[in-house]
Structure formats: structure tokens, C-alpha cells
Amino acid sequence: MQNAEANASFEAAKTDVQRKSLDQREQMNELMRIRHSCAHMLATAVLRIWPDALLDIGPPTDEGFYYDFDLPSHRFTPDDFPRIEEEMRKVAKENQVFEKRIQTREEARAYFEGKGQKFKVERLADIPEGEAISFYQNGEFVDLCAGPHVMRTGNVKAFKLLKVASAYFRGNEKNPQLQRLYGTAFKNKEELETWLKLQEEAKKRDHRRIGAEMGLFAFDSEYVGPGLPLWLPKGTVLVEELERLAKETEFAANYVRVRTPHLAKEKMYKTSGHLPYYAESMFAPMEFKEAEADEVATRYYLKAMNCPHHHRIFAAEPRSYRDLPLRLAEYGTCYRYEQSGELFGLMRVRSMQMNDAHIYLTAEQFAAEFNAVNEMYLKYFKIFGLDRYLMRFSTHDPSKLGQKFVNEPELWKKTEDMVRDVLKSSGINFVEVPNEAAFYGPKIDVQVWSAIGREFTIATNQVDFAVPQRFGLVYKDRDNTEKTPLCIHRAPLGTHERFIGFLIEHYAGNFPLWLAPEQVRVLTIGDDERLVDYARSIVTELRGQQVRAEGDWSTNPIKAKIQDAEQAKVHTMLVLGGRDLDAGVVSVRLHSKGPQGAKPRAEVVADIVAAIRERRA
Ligand SMILES: [Zn+2]
Ligand SMILES: [Zn+2]
Question: How far is the CA of 57 from the centre of ligand 1 (A)?
């Protein structure tokens, strides 16, 4: 159904951890076992200090692990961490064995009821009938858990508690609020140290912090609402530059642009399949009667994704095989109802503008087109200097056709084979992940690593062979029969919000010239009238060439002016003194790189214009 964040955030909307199958558990790698075992050790330590703590669950995560507690008598703060960690170190030193024990459901229930562990009793009910109910015990601590763990607590050698947050039981706002302790664990101290350093660097590059310092975006929860970013003038520059890049790239690849409204009738999302399944992730509908005489009110929803609108554009005119592939592109705005606790800067928002396009095509056209889409990704990676990326190709599981996956065995096989072939023959870095496809077709999640080595999922690329059918989309083929097209959803630049959040970290706010909100600042040494005129004429010339240039001809000392410009992360400073004026040159200084020497004015201007046009890194 959808690309980009659609799936990601729809999945995240169900914040409760999905129960892992036994197969998935067995595949848990060593690091995950260490982390999960460490969660048990955390719970052991917490119970030693606060015996009245009620336990929920403690799964491993990509970054470490957490454990959820209900503890009304005490509110965890980071001040508690040293004490808890000390107790955890004791548990490690005791080198307790993780012992597995199979219990009957009744025994398990009796055990947890006896301990007053009500959340465990509820979790017990999640275990399907027929699946073994296992307890794991280390020392005095017993947990309901399917494993796996490391052999002994002593195998967990490097860990650290990170933060405390609140979380609802099962991720549902209607349930009691629990306290979540986050921590991380690694195989050894060196790996832990490296990771902590990376986190430090990431903190410095935190997009929320840099965004505020540079004046890129703001949130106004009181008047606008949480999760609805306001793009300030400098942030708007980033948005528009990315959009220009997409427009030019897509134009060259024969896309056509469309524009669609921000809302649609309920019927649209029922047809697309978003309703009722994803109703929780959509804003509540607006309801009104179109005419006074109407008996029933019409419901309108803010659009959670652009696809259905584009499908209606496909349907708006008769289509022939000659029109295909039809590539409809729009930087469309979508709205998702994320719970307020899930919102995070630009990374998780309620309104987002997506680098969306839907490509309608025949099965014969698929391989070439899919290849072209991948080429576009690679082109973007190059522009942004992303040398580390991975495409996660998610395929279906034939045993789950008709349940988890739309029941089209031949189409699944055909499209997956095509995607695999294209990925293999193009030498793209990819892994295949079985059983993770979307309901409507195989998908590719694109992961990239920022300059400091942090991983982001920025985009999803999806093949869809069910929705065009649901919308009754057809084209007239050569033989005059009506056929249903395939559809590729793609959004290489993801959403502006997430992609810019990523770029801020990637560049630490030091954007390349073409992207920099303020590209050039002309600084005068002193405020001599002739010098200021010279400086003004350079700013005017640059602006005439569409360069975002500003001037600083105040009486401030040049040192202070340079400092100001450095702080504002202005890409290029042109420093002018009396001698530069007489020689018709300008002294170039680059942000965080220092002086680059004096060059003739015309050469400097031409070079700036060319660097921007070529989007040099
Ligand atoms: Zn466990
Ligand atoms: Zn789509």
C-alpha cells in the first residue's frame, strides 16, 4: 500500500511489542541475547531495591533493551541509575545460571497471581494455547519468558542504563502508565564505549537542537498543535531545495507532476483498505451534510497517504497501454495521528510532506522501471555523500497467502523474482527478508547511515498489485482488452520532515553550498563607503544569479563578523578589505575550513554559481 513512512509509522502506531514466533526467537543473535538477558538482570536489581515493583516485559531493541515497571511508590530518575547498575553488577558477579522451566498455564497463573504480578498474568493470556509456557530463573528472579538468553549472568560484561520514560501498558493510552527503564549492553567494554561516543556525537548533531540554533523549524503545541512543524524561512530553503532536486530529477526521468487535496471521503480509504484497519493512525473524520436535505452526513478524512488520490487521477481519464508507464509525482502532504508520546522532533510528526510518486505500468515494463527507480536512489545517495546504504527486500511467505498476504501466488512469485533479478544484476547492496512484505506486495526499505554511522530508514519502495484492482484501475491493452496495471510506490527522499532531520545530523548543520540556507555572506573590514558599495554590488550580483547572499557591513570588528557568520553556519564568507577593492579581488573563507585565499571577483562568483548548479558536495 504505501511507501515511505506509511508502513513504518502505521506499525509504530501499534507500539506494543509484537510477540515473536519461536523461530524468530531462535534466530536472536548473540548481541540480542546479551541485551535481553541484561533486561532480566535489570529487573532482578530493581526488585532487590524496590520489592513492590510490578513487572511487565523487557525485550531487546536495536539500541539495547528496556524493562517496564509499575512502581507507584517511587519515580525513577537518572539519579537511581548508579545504584541500580551497581546491583546489576552484583548480579553479574554472582554468575547466575539462566534456568528454563516449563510450566502449565495454571501453575504459571497461580505463581504470578500469588506475587500480585497482574501484568504478567495478562501477558500470560497472550501465549497461544498449545505453545509451551516457559519460566526463566536467574538467582532469586523468575520471569515469564520464551528466551533465549546467555548461559549465565556473568556473560553480560558491558552495560549501561540510559534513560527513563513512561510507557502505557501494551502501548495503549487507556491502560495504566508504566515506567520504562532503558539500557544498553554490548559484548565488551570497548564496543560499549564506541557506541556511547557515537551517542555523544549524535547528541551534538541532534536535529532538534541544530534546528533551533539555525532557525530551521519550530513547533507550537499551544496554537498549532503537537507534531505539526512550522518551517521557518531558513528551513523552508531546505524544503524547497530538496523539492527542486526532486522535480528536476523526476522531470528528466519522465515523471509528470500532479496536485491533490488534503482530504477525501471515507469511501476513498475504505476502498484503499486503510479503513477500518488503520483508523487509529488517521485523524478523526470531519462529518457534515452536503445538503440540508441529506439524511446522512458525509465523512471526510485528512489523507494519511497520497496513493488513493493518485489512483483516482489514473482513473480520471481513459488509459491506454501507450500511456504506460504513467509516473505521477507529488510532494504531497499527509496527516497521521501519532500518539503524543510517540512524537519526536521532525522524525515523528503528524503532518508530513512526502516525495511521493506512483508509477502505473505493465508487468513487461516492470524490470526496466524498477531499475530506473533504483538508479534514482543511487543518484540521490551520491549527491548527499551517502556511501553506506542497504536495501532490505521484504518478501512474502507462501504459507500465509490469503491471511498476511494478498492471495495472488503467481503475482507474488513473478514480482519478487523480477525485483530480486534487478537488485542482483545492478549490484545494489541488499538483503532479503522473508515474511516481511506488505499485504499488497513486496517492498524495499532503504536504510542509510549518516556521516557518524547512525542508521536511518528513510524511504520505502513498494510493488503493489492489489490496490489498482481494488480501485478498478484499467488500461486498454494492444489487443483492446482491459487490463489492470501494476503500481510502484516510491519515495526516495522520504518525507521532508524525516529526510531533513536526517540531513541535519548527517551534515551537523553544515550543509553543502547548494543546500545551505545562507550560502554566502559578504563581510567588510570596516565600513568605508567605497568598500560598502563594492560589497553591496557583489551581493546584488550574486542575488541576481539566485544565490542566497547577505552582507554584513556593520562597524563591528571583522573578527566578530566572521564569528557571527561561522555561528550561523554560512557556507562561504567573502571578506573584503581596502586592498581587495583596489585589486578587484575577494578573499574567500569557508565555514569551519578557514581562509582560502584571494581570487578575482568574477572567478569567485562563477565558481559559486557553478558549485550550486552542480550541487557539489
Ligand atoms: Zn527472557
Ligand atoms: Zn503510495
Answer: 9
Same domain, 534 and 485: no
If you average pLDDT over residues 102-116, what whole number do you get?
A: 93
What are the residues whose beta carbons fall under 8 Å from the beta carbon of 57, sequence distance 6 or more?
17, 67, 68, 119, 123
48 Cα–ligand 1 center, Å: 18
Distance CA 305, CA 271 (A): 13
β-pair type (256-257, 326-335): parallel
Is residue 9 scored above 60 in pLDDT?
Answer: no
Mean of the per-residue pLDDT values of the chain? 92
Domain count, the chain: 4
Q: Are residues 503 and 563 in the same domain?
A: no
* pLDDT given for residue 68 in this prediction: 97
In tens, the pLDDT along 44-97 reads: 999 999 999 999 999 998 889 999 999 999 999 999 999 999 999 999 999 999
Asked if 141 and 222 sit in the same domain, the reply is: no
Dist. CA 151 → ligand 1 center (Å):
12
pTM of the predicted structure, to 2 decimals: 0.81
- Alpha-carbon dihedral angle through residues 66, 140, 105, 128, given to the nearest 10 degrees: 20
Q: What is the CATH number of the domain that holds 223?
A: 3.30.930.10
Among the bound ligands, name the one nearest to the CA of residue 146: 1
Query: Is 332 in contact with 353 (CB distance < 8 Å)?
Result: yes
Tell me which of 21 and 280 has the higher pLDDT.
Answer: 280
403: helix, strand or coil: coil
Residue 340: pLDDT over 80: yes
Which CA distances in Å does 415 have to 191, 366, 370, 374, 533? 40, 8, 10, 15, 64
pLDDT value at position 10?
A: 33
Gap from CA of 2 to ligand 2 centroid (Å) = 4
> From the CA of 146, how far away is ligand 1's center (Å)?
6
- The DSSP output letter for 432 is E
Residue 452 lies in a domain: yes
Residue at 525 is within a domain = yes
Q: How far is the CA of 298 from the centre of ligand 1 (A)?
A: 50
Of 337, 315, 331, nearest to 231 by C-alpha is 331
Q: Is the pLDDT of residue 24 over 70?
A: no
Domain of 50 in residue numbering reads as 17-196
**Residues 321 and 172 placed together within one structural domain of the fold:** no
Please state the separation of Cα 102 from the chain's center in Å. Answer: 40
pLDDT at 465: 82
